[in-house]
Write a structure and sequence with these properties.
Protein name: Thioredoxin domain-containing protein
Shape: globular
Low-confidence stretches: none
Helix content: 25-40%
CATH architecture of the largest domain: 3-Layer(aba) Sandwich
Largest sheet: 6 strands, mixed
Length: about 210
């Protein structure tokens, strides 16, 4: 998590430092400044995302690792579980959170989504991997009506808890995090499909089907 606090601080420093100069700056996944050509040479959608922040005088481009590992301490994990489900204890092997950040260049079309995570076999196969509690969380509900609200229960991110724990920046499309019963997690930023959730879930609990 410290890495993404560093990213936010870096953006603030760079914007302040070059506030009077028109400039483009590029950073790799280690927050090291690199050339524009190296930035796009290293860009690999399977591995990373390119995020861009700009104002009138500066454009900052970052490479962000898509797949990340972490561990929640007991206090934070318990608080998250209570926020997700206040009426019953979450005791399944996995907690799966699909996170919708709001309308952006990826999910800006105004038509029913054909995203395969809404396929009928998605949860069926997930259940074969391990028992789970699944949550559909959104930050901003603009365009959310095109993401099957009659099929799944979208819930607002209470007090931005999920955002602050896992998705501090706006990653395009949607993102996901899978957490095991001990608080160990794998987060995945940006566009993904049902097979990604299956693979990360199997990796997290080391189960083969």
């Amino acid at each position: 998590m410290k890495k993404y606090y560093s990213i936010l601080i870096l953006i603030s420093i760079v914007n302040f430092s070059f506030s009077q100069v028109q400039k483009k700056v590029f950073y790799n996944e280690n927050l090291e400044e690199i050339s524009e050509s190296n930035f796009y040479k290293q860009l690999n959608f399977q591995k990373n995302l390119d995020l861009h922040f700009e104002n009138d005088t500066l454009k900052t481009s970052l490479l962000i690792t898509r797949k990340n590992y972490g561990q929640l301490n007991d206090s934070i994990f318990n608080n998250l579980k209570k926020s997700l489900s206040s009426d019953k204890e979450l005791s399944n092997n996995l907690i799966v959170i699909v996170y919708y950040p709001g309308k952006d260049r990826c999910n800006g079309t105004e038509s029913t989504s054909f995203w395969n995570i809404f396929d009928h076999d998605y949860l069926k196969k997930l259940n074969k991997i391990g028992s789970y509690s699944h949550f559909w969380i959104y930050k901003d509900d603009e365009n959310l009506q095109y993401y099957h609200p009659k099929q799944v229960k979208w819930e607002n991110d209470k007090n931005q808890l999920v955002e602050n724990l896992f998705f501090k920046l706006h990653y395009p499309c949607s993102s996901a995090v899978i957490i095991d019963k001990n608080g160990k997690y794998i987060s995945y930023y940006g566009e993904f499909g049902k097979s990604t959730i299956w693979e990360l879930s199997k990796e997290l609990i080391n189960t083969k089907i």
